Every structure is written in C-alpha cells, then in structure tokens.
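If your schedule permits, I should be very grateful for your opinion on a structural question. Thank you for your consideration; the sequence and its tokens are set out here:

===
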Amino acid sequence: MSPSQKLNAGVIRSDLAMADGRTIRYYDSQGQVRSAKDQRPQEEQPGIGELRLDPLVNEWVVMAAHRQGRVFLPPKELCPLCPTIGELLTEIPDSNYEIVVFDNRSPSLRSPEGDWAIPDMVGTETDPGTAAGKCEVICFTDNHGGSFAQLTAQRVRVLLEAWSDRVRELSKEPYIHHIAPFENRGEEVGVTLVHPHGQIYAYSYLPPRVQKMLAVAQLHFENTGRVLFDDVVARELKDGDRIVAQNKHWVAFVPYAARYPFEIHVAPLKPVADLAGLSPEQSDAFPEIALEVMRRLDGVFGIAMAYIATWHQAPVREGRDLLRLHWQITSVRRAPGKLKYLAGSESAMGAFIMDLKPEQSAGQLRDVVL
C-alpha cells in the first residue's frame, strides 16, 4: 500500500489493504492515524461480468449475475458500512471514520486482466466482452442514521475532496473512459443499504446519455462556436425564475425542461470539465450550496425525499472542452404519498411527461424555510 497522501483542504488520504485484497481509502481532516487491520477471513472475489451489445440501439449492457445475492436492506446491527465495533466486522476495519472509499464487494464492473479492448460494434455479430471498469463505494459518515443533508459543511468539503481525488486517480487507468459518482437515497429509487453512502462507477465505454450529450454539444459548438452547457446556465441566470440557490461560485436551478417532479442542477459559475478541475475557491464554496439544496429538497413536504444525485462531467479522453461538470439531483416524489412512476411513455419510449412545471417546483424549493 502507498503511504498517506496530503490532499487539499487539509485532507489526508490513507490506503490500507482489506482481507480479500481490496483497498480501503480513508479521507481524514483531523490528523487521524489509520492502521486498523481487517480481521475478517479472506473471501474469494467474484469474477468479471460480461458486456453485450444491444444492436437495436447500439448500446452496451452489463451482465453481472454475481450481484444477485448481494446484501439487501440489513438491520442496523448488521450494516456492512458502519465502522467495526465489537464483534461486528464490517467493510470498514476502524472504529470510526470521516469519509472512506473502497472497491465494491459485488461490482458490476471490475479491473480487467492483461491488455483489454472493447469489442468492435458489428451489429448482431458483435462479440461479447468483459465488463471492464471500476465500482467503488464511498461512505459519507460513520453515523448510520444520518444523511447528506445532516452533514456538516466541513464534512461535505472532505467528501468533495475524496470525489475529486478518485476522479484524478481513476482517470489514469487506460481502460477508463467515463467516471460517474452518484448517490441513491431511499427505497423508492432502489437503495439496498440505508447507511449514507454513494458509489463511483468508472466505465470502459461512454454510457448512452453521455454519448448523446456529447453529440448534441458537438453540433451546438459547430453551429455557434459556444459550449452548450454554458448557454444553458446563461439562460437560467437570465430567466431567474428557476434559480433555487446561488453563491459566489455556484448556482442551483431547476432546468427549463425538467423531467422529474423535483430536479435540481448545481453548476459552478466558472465552468470546468470535471471534479478534478475545481479550484480551491470553488471547492470551498460548494458545501454551502450543496447543503442548502438538500435541505430545501427535504423541506418541500417535510419528509426525507428519495433522490438520485449524480455528478455529470466530461469523459476522460474526449469531449473535454464540450461537456461541463454539474451535479444533478432528481426525485420521483411529486407529492406526499405519491411518486412519479416511469411508466409506458418514459420507460418504453424514453419520452418524459411532466405533471409539474419547473417554475412551480423551483418556487416550492425557494419557499422552504431553512
């Protein structure tokens, strides 16, 4: 394992080996020393999944059958993301932590062996490939009953530093082409562990949405000489009625053509390609607006809102000047006791229909008293 590394904002990263050969990375800001050993017996790690092409839409689909038996909503006393205390031996060997990142125990994507290349796309004759990539778990707090909205600003700053560090490191892998940190919160969006945490998916190909965004951004640049997302942010700032929050370095808004009852995009006012490109000033200003947005979301109906929060950023090796970093938070909750189901039009046709105008949801978010 490599020695401790000093990052920005006084964060120290310490890497330790887990019992089965995976790596756990502690991100600390209070001078902690990490040396706790994983006391669990060594287990064999699952094999790599399969990559198959859907020729009808020319999109890759990952077959990861080994994930079928993964942990599903365990009680608090058996939570694998809590620190190790007493006889409960968890994924985190130490008795406390700020932020930790480790390789997923049941990854959809994993590091390939030897030289790796994605199969050539030749329709129904396309060979299957191996599901190369990386899947990491990132835990936000050792408090099982907490949430992102309850984190301190200082903890969110450490979290942002961990996200940025993982993007920098994963981008060095030759088979990685896109990196997407995200958080799922709530059983309504498929959460299987309720402990506050997110994941980082590093793909060996460009996911379909990224491909489409890149193609549209390229066309816009060819036609106008401008970056599309910059124009999007400029329109939101000009219109103003969909702005939810803003500070010196960031703006949060409900997009003009939102697809979900509550959808918020948080973007730096000075655009960057990815998390690793944020300046210290931008990074220091992020916790304030991130916590405000999350608390406004929970305050709309006075309940913990289920959501998916995803970092969109430029691919690792292309489109670096065309796609911009932004944090997208989407919730399927449209009213207390009511969800927006992605039914026939959305799921089958990919055609979204909104029951609530973006200006209305932005107003509801702004009206929340913090």
Remarks:
- The chain has a mean pLDDT of 95.
- Residues 250 and 269 are 5 Å apart (CA to CA).
- Residues 280-299 form the longest helix (20 residues).
